[in-house]
Write a structure and sequence with these properties.
Order of helices and strands: HHHHHHHHHHHHHHH
Helix content: 55-70%
Shape: globular
Number of helices: 15
Distance between the termini: 22 Å
Radius of gyration: 21 Å
CATH topology: Ammonium transporter fold
Largest sheet: none
CATH superfamily: Ammonium transporter AmtB like domains
CATH class: Mainly Alpha
Number of domains: 1
Mean pLDDT: 84
């Protein structure tokens, strides 16, 4: 066995041990357990089921969602789990740091943990863009850098632009998608003849099962921190249902033989939930959520079918699992919908007489959107350059998309 295969023995275990020791020390000196008041909406008895839904969605759902490559199944699920458990600990410490700096109020422990899990979704989405190209050391470094920058972005939105906490947190899809695309653009492109980056019916089936798992639990994701939980659940479910129906319809219409394509359905059924993340708790009429779900599915399906062929080669976008069209573009649509729906609601309440408040509302929402996406792109490019330094042992392009480089894999699995 070449020595290159053993090189991670001297880096990955010690990096993980170092980080875990650091997390333990920071938690020992800086983490204070809070006891919720009687009747608190975030008490463990009432909040734990929703938290478990989100936890299952992020670990199980996204773990299988990323299994799109025929020879990268172990790494897709295994690395996803490793990054989540490290990322959640980092996020909790960031939450406590913001409390220590008095940027946000002290909150009940389980609510802080839920926010940490939701924030870690940005890392999972970004991992989909660099799937099969980054080694474990690079993925761990990317996780820490991305979470810190995401919290800084959220802090800017909350303190400078006065964006509500729920809205600032739901920028996680937008940030994760474009941060990951920016990082992936700094990795060398795989050679045209490399066939390890294709999928098989088995890998597509596992990926679709993960998509269905994420689909089922997405209403809990959108409502876990919302004030109007019932409206958030109903609106998210209606949007997801319409986006799933539209995904099947558009898949048959855009294929040459009229057959459904698993890749089309896989990328579009979640689009409605992503778009509704911003406004799930504020929409009063279900038909608005259904229209947004339809538009989101159209953006994801047509974007994957049309733009991917002409836009990705021109901009040299490398998107292994299609996070741009599954999360990025629907998140952009959701941000635009937030501005439109907010202006309409404010205009109706003021009878369109207070133009200054409308202008301020547009400025705040567009400012938060532009700040988030520009921060994600700029810091993603810088992070991509950092990840390719020699110290982090970037793998050769010939070793892309291969479990055998990191895992003990049987010959039967390799041949499959």
């Amino acid at each position: 066995m070449p020595s290159r295969y053993l090189s991670f023995r001297c880096s990955v275990p010690w990096l993980i041990l170092l980080l875990q020791t650091l997390f333990l020390l920071c938690s020992f000196f800086g983490f204070h357990r809070q006891t919720p008041a009687l009747g608190d909406i975030y008490s463990p008895s009432s909040f734990y089921p929703e938290f478990q839904d989100v936890n299952h969605m992020v670990i199980f759902g996204f773990g299988f969602f990323l299994m799109v490559l025929r020879r990268y199944g172990f790494s897709s699920t295994g690395f996803n789990f490793l990054l989540i458990v490290l990322g959640v600990q980092c996020s909790v410490l960031m939450e406590n740091l913001l409390v220590f700096l008095r940027v946000q109020q002290n909150e009940v422990g389980m609510k802080s943990l839920a926010k940490a899990v939701v924030s870690t979704t940005a890392v999972v989405i970004s991992t989909g863009a660099v799937l099969g190209k980054a080694n474990p050391v690079q993925l761990i470094v990317m996780t820490l850098v991305e979470l810190i920058i995401f919290y800084v972005s959220r802090c800017i939105n909350r303190t400078v632009l006065q964006v509500p906490q729920q809205l600032s947190l739901m920028h996680v899809h937008l940030f994760g998608a474009y941060f990951g695309l920016a990082v992936a653009s700094r990795f060398p492109e795989p050679p045209p003849g490399l066939d390890k980056n294709r999928s098989t019916p088995k890998s597509e089936l596992f990926s679709m099962l993960g998509t269905v798992f994420v689909w089922v639990f997405w209403p809990s994701f959108n409502s876990i921190l919302a004030d109007s939980k019932e409206e958030a659940v109903l609106n998210t479910y209606f949007a997801l249902a319409v986006s799933a129906v539209a995904a099947f319809m558009l898949s048959a219409l855009t294929s040459k033989d009229g057959k459904f394509r698993m890749a089309h359905v896989h990328g579009a059924v979640l689009a409605g939930g992503v778009t509704l993340s911003y406004t799930a708790g504020s929409i009063q009429q279900p038909w608005i959520a259904m229209i947004l779900g339809l538009l989101a599915s159209g953006v994801a399906s047509l974007g994957s079918h049309c733009l991917q062929r002409c836009l990705n080669p021109a901009l040299k976008l490398q998107d292994t699992s299609g996070v741009h069209f599954t999360f990025g573009l629907p998140a952009v649509l959701g941000a635009v919908a937030t501005v439109v729906l907010g202006v309409v609601e404010e205009g109706i309440n003021t009878q369109w007489n207070n133009l200054s408040s409308l202008g301020y509302l547009i400025f705040v929402n567009l400012g938060a959107f532009c700040q988030t996406i520009s921060t994600a792109l700029i810091t993603g490019l810088i992070t991509g350059l950092i990840l390719n330094i020699k110290l982090l042992k970037a793998v050769h392009v010939s070793k892309y998309f291969d479990d055998q480089f990191y895992w003990e894999v049987s010959c039967k699995i390799i041949s499959g």
